[in-house]
Structure formats: structure tokens, C-alpha cells
Design brief:
The protein has two domains: 10-30 and 91-175, Thiol Ester Dehydrase, Chain A; 194-310, no CATH class. Helix content is 16%, strand content 34%. It is built from six helices and 14 strands. The strands form three sheets. Strands 1, 2, 3, 4, 5 and 6 form a six-stranded antiparallel sheet that branches. A five-stranded antiparallel sheet has the order 12-11-10-13-14, covered by helices on one side. Strands 8-7-9 form a three-stranded antiparallel sheet, covered by helices on one side. The protein is elongated and about 85 Å long.
Length: 315
């Protein structure tokens, strides 16, 4: 939908949305399995819940119960459908409401809160079903995620006799995602190169230097390729360089970059080479051995990178 409304009046769209209030989205639907001890065991082990009434009939009877009971927090789990079942089912009014919200641009969803009321404990052998109806759909609200609507539904959980054992008020925010500029891909920072990116954030272009033979090297590494020493320090580059080679990238497009994108290997005055971007120059005007000078690109608060522009150019 690309977050855009179809051509229709706001009033008509609102009328269609509000027509779902009070409507049953999911008719009374039985769970796939009855309440059972093996699933309870998996649940309490995963949750770290050591309450013995969930697995020990003796401990449960000591509390006045007839036998083990299921954790109340499992109520929803007894009616959840597997992925294969969900994808093979026919469309429901719930799917229709989701499609209508997407039609209005509300294509994303996040759960906001859930309120449970329990009427009795579930015990092994109970057959649990659930029915879900719409309680309310809010007017459009401005949220930190984007303009959206709060959809509140009520799920009623029943046993085999049709008696309600629990109710759940479930609220979600369906929203139109706010447009955000795509982040430039993050560099792979590790123990060997983190010093380089930390210096770049301070707008210092440094070059790793072997402390034993004083050979400069880039990209950074733990060991000198010439004398195999692990001792090193850095020197600060002058920022003068020449274009050693370059490519003009058109594909694949990435929303964080502007195209055509000039990607170059520049040779620093100190002798090492660096992969970077060229700025302030058209692709047709780039030439091998062209003098370039350093400037800094503040990509975002977490990332600053060196780029180069023609040395004869002025900002």
C-alpha cells in the first residue's frame, strides 16, 4: 500500500472502520490440544516457575485443589494455532479488518498491553476455545512510531461446557510508519580496527605503524606483515592523497546513498591506501593520480568517515 490511502472520503473510511466495533472477528474456535501436563512442564521450565502445584498432585492437594493446575499465564497458549494451520485457514473478519487498516496506510502493528481476568483455574483434560470481538477502534493518534489507531479486542476463553474461564482485553497499535532516512551500513568493527573508527569519530585520520620496523600499514591488523611484530602505534595522516583507482556504482541501489556513487582507492601522501568515497566531483571528471584532500562525513551521531574531494576544489 506504500502507506497511502485509497481515494475515498475520510468519513466513509471511518464509517467502514467503526462498523467492526462489536463484531466478532474470530468465532468460538477450539484449541488443538486439551490442557496437558507435558505442555505445562515445558512452560514452567521455560519460565523458571517452580510452583509445585503445576506438576505435583500431592503439592496441589495440600493447597486444597483436586490435583495439578495449569499456570494462568498459559491460558492463551492452549488456543494458539500452529503456523501451517494459520496459513491454510480461510480468511476471517480479522483478516478483513487487517486489510482495511492497511488500506488506510496503517500497515504496521505493535502490541501495547494485555489485561487478563481469570474465572477459574484450568486443569488437565480441559478443552479450551476462544472467541475474539472488537471493543473499540480509536480515532487516528500521533505516536512516536507514526500516526496510528489503537484497536482493542476482547478474547473470551471457554471450556467444553461453554463457560467462560478467562477474558483478555488485547490492545494493539496499528500505525503508518513514519518515514526515516535509511542508515548507512555499519562497518565491521573489531579489536584490530576499533582504534581507527574511534579516531575517525574525532576527525583524525590515523595510520597504524609498526613500533619495531616503523612500517605503516592499512587496513589495520594485529601483526606487522614485514617483521611480524605485534607492537604498534599510530601516526596522523596529512590528509593529502591521489586517486589510485575508482569505480562508479549504479547498482544495487541502497536508500542510504545517492547515485551515481564514486568509490575510490586513494593513495595517501604517507604511502598507504584507503578505500573511500569521492565527493564534490562528477564521475566524468575523475582521473587517475588526481590530487584529492581529506574532509569528514558525519554520517550520523555514531559514525564519522573520511571522504576525499579534488584538491583544487573549495568547499
Amino acid at each position: 500500500m506504500n502507506g497511502e490511502r485509497k481515494p475515498q472520503s475520510e468519513a466513509e473510511y471511518e464509517r467502514r472502520l467503526q462498523s467492526y466495533v462489536g463484531r466478532v472477528l474470530v468465532p468460538d474456535r477450539p484449541g488443538q490440544d486439551p490442557v496437558n501436563v507435558p505442555m505445562i512442564r515445558h512452560w514452567v521450565e521455560a519460565m523458571g516457575d517452580a510452583n509445585p502445584v503445576y506438576l505435583s498432585a500431592e503439592a496441589a492437594r495440600a493447597t486444597g485443589r483436586d490435583g495439578v493446575v495449569a499456570p494462568a499465564s498459559m491460558t492463551q497458549a492452549w488456543t494458539m494455532r500452529g503456523y501451517a494451520t494459520t496459513t491454510s485457514e480461510a480468511a476471517t473478519p480479522f483478516d478483513e479488518l487487517v486489510a482495511l487498516l492497511a488500506e488506510g496506510g496503517y500497515s504496521s502493528v505493535v502490541a501495547t498491553d494485555s489485561e487478563f481476568e481469570f474465572h477459574r483455574e484450568l486443569v488437565p483434560g480441559d478443552e479450551v476455545s476462544t472467541e475474539e470481538a472488537v471493543e473499540s477502534i480509536s480515532p487516528e493518534k500521533n505516536t512516536g512510531l507514526g500516526p496510528g489507531r489503537f484497536v482493542t479486542t476482547v478474547r473470551t476463553y471457554r471450556d467444553a461446557s461453554g463457560t467462560a474461564v478467562a477474558t483478555q482485553k488485547w490492545r494493539t497499535l496499528t500505525f503508518r510508519p513514519a518515514e526515516k532516512k535509511a542508515l548507512r551500513p555499519r562497518p565491521a568493527v573489531n579489536q584490530d580496527n576499533e582504534f581507527w573508527f574511534a579516531a575517525a569519530k574525532e576527525k583524525r585520520l590515523v595510520i597504524q605503524r609498526c613500533r619495531f620496523c616503523e612500517t605503516l600499514r592499512h587496513p589495520p591488523g594485529p601483526c606487522c606483515p614485514h617483521c611480524q611484530s605485534f607492537e604498534w602505534d599510530t601516526v596522523t595522516a596529512s590528509g593529502r592523497a591521489t586517486v589510485y583507482s575508482y569505480v562508479v556504482a549504479h547498482h544495487p541501489p541502497h536508500p542510504a546513498f545517492e547515485y551515481p556513487l564514486l568509490i575510490a582507492v586513494v593513495e595517501l601522501a604517507e604511502g598507504t591506501r584507503l578505500i573511500t568515497n569521492l565527493v564534490g566531483v562528477a564521475p566524468d571528471d575523475v582521473a587517475i593520480d588526481m590530487p584529492v584532500r581529506l574532509e569528514w562525513l558525519e554520517v550520523d551521531p555514531q559514525l564519522t568517515l573520511p571522504v576525499f574531494r579534488p584538491a583544487t576544489d573549495r568547499p
